[in-house]
């Protein structure tokens, strides 16, 4: 029973001081999902906004990834303004041309004598980075647990149950970006319930019949999945797609959808034809950038006739329906009259995540 539980307060969803606190205590101390690794080639730079902290991820010649604070140790200039290709051996500051090896070591100081500064002590500030099955995670805290240890600490949000899909072998076939005028927790809460589904997602409930009841979990199953319309293969119009099944999928398995929310900023949606990885990038108390990468088998993406439009268009439709109502909620919770809302039984997953959120933010 969830009866008696409240939502977070209006300030929790709209206050910049609350956002600063959760940024410092949650977003910068968690294994934060950034993006897929497979689009990166040697020399590529990936600039990520990790809740207000610019993180520079670089790819070495052998494919090793390094993450650093995106700031020069000399006078504080930002090293890279945007993602893109770059030299395969070094990072150069656009201000005074100080240069760094991709692993962060200071290796060049033009017009500065060897005895003027201690190069060995001026490596870039490195950030913990791990790649699991092609997904890039960073952690801005000092001496964090490993990512696998993190999964063990939080089994309810672990991605390990999906390891059998060999997602490291999949490739990004399409990438979309949405700017949402809503707090990241409103978006997270929305993902954790389906009471809104009959009202907001008429197309989705047509292919996931359970969602018509407002339930997000099928209590008759012990695997966390929900059944699609008979004969369906994924999230696409009428549940049928021209895309082939993923290599790890059978026609029977493809009739089930699995969703996982990795706190604090990742949604993973597994269907028969596609796996969708969505990163939530909070930029303020009232705005979140949503980046979704659509994963398919490598040979499917490489096909000159590759066209995932039916899958992508359907999922973008559902996503934008969610983003619209999340923005409506954001406007509402900023009212002086909104102290908190209430949670029904079908909102139990929100109650659970709010408990974890408050423990990490205030503990």
TrEMBL record:
InterPro entries: Rieske_2Fe-2S, Rieske_2Fe-2S_sf, Ring_hydroxy_dOase_asu_C_dom, Rng_hydr_dOase-A
Keyword Iron: yes
Cited CDD domains: Rieske_RO_Alpha_N
Organism: freshwater metagenome
Organism lineage: unclassified sequences, metagenomes, ecological metagenomes
PANTHER family, per database record: CHOLINE MONOOXYGENASE, CHLOROPLASTIC
SUPFAM superfamilies: Bet v1-like, ISP domain
Record GO terms (molecular function): 2 iron, 2 sulfur cluster binding; iron ion binding; oxidoreductase activity
Segments forming domain Rieske: 32-138
Record key words, sorted: 2Fe-2S, Iron, Iron-sulfur, Metal-binding, Oxidoreductase
Membrane-spanning intervals of the chain: none
Stated name of the protein: Unannotated protein
Required cofactor names: Fe cation
């Amino acid at each position: 029973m969830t009866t008696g539980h409240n939502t977070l307060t209006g300030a929790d969803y709209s206050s910049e001081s609350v956002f600063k606190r959760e940024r410092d205590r949650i977003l910068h101390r968690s294994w934060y999902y950034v993006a897929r690794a497979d689009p990166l080639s040697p020399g590529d730079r990936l600039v990520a906004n990790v809740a207000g902290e610019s993180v520079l991820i670089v790819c070495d010649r052998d494919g090793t990834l390094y993450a650093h604070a995106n700031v020069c140790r000399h006078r504080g200039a930002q090293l890279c303004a945007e993602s893109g290709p770059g030299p395969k051996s070094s990072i150069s500051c656009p201000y005074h041309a100080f240069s760094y090896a991709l692993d962060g070591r200071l290796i060049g100081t033009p017009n500065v004598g060897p005895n003027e500064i201690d190069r060995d002590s001026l490596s870039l500030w490195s950030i913990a980075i791990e790649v699991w099955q092609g997904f890039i995670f960073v952690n801005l805290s000092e001496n964090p647990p490993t990512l696998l240890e993190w999964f063990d600490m939080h089994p309810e949000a672990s991605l390990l149950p999906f390891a059998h899909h060999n997602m490291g072998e999949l490739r990004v076939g399409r990438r979309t970006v949405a700017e949402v005028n809503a707090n990241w927790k409103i978006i997270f809460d929305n993902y954790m319930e389906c009471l809104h589904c009959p009202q907001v997602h008429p197309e989705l409930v047509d292919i996931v019949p359970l969602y018509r009841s407002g339930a997000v979990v099928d209590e008759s199953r012990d695997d966390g999945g929900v059944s699609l319309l008979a004969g369906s293969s994924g999230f696409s119009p009428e549940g049928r797609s021209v895309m082939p099944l993923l290599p790890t999928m059978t026609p029977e398995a493809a009739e089930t959808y699995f969703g996982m929310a990795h706190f604090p900023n990742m949604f993973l949606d597994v269907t028969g034809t596609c796996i969708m990885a969505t990163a939530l990038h909070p930029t303020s108390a009232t705005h979140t950038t949503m980046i979704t990468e659509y994963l398919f088998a490598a040979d499917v993406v490489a096909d000159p006739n590759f066209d995932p439009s039916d899958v992508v268009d359907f999922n973008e439709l559902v996503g934008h329906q969610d983003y619209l109502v999340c923005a409506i909620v954001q406007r509402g919770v900023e009212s002086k009259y909104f102290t908190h809302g209430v949670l029904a039984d079908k909102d139990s997953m929100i109650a659970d995540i709010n408990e974890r959120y408050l423990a990490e933010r205030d503990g």
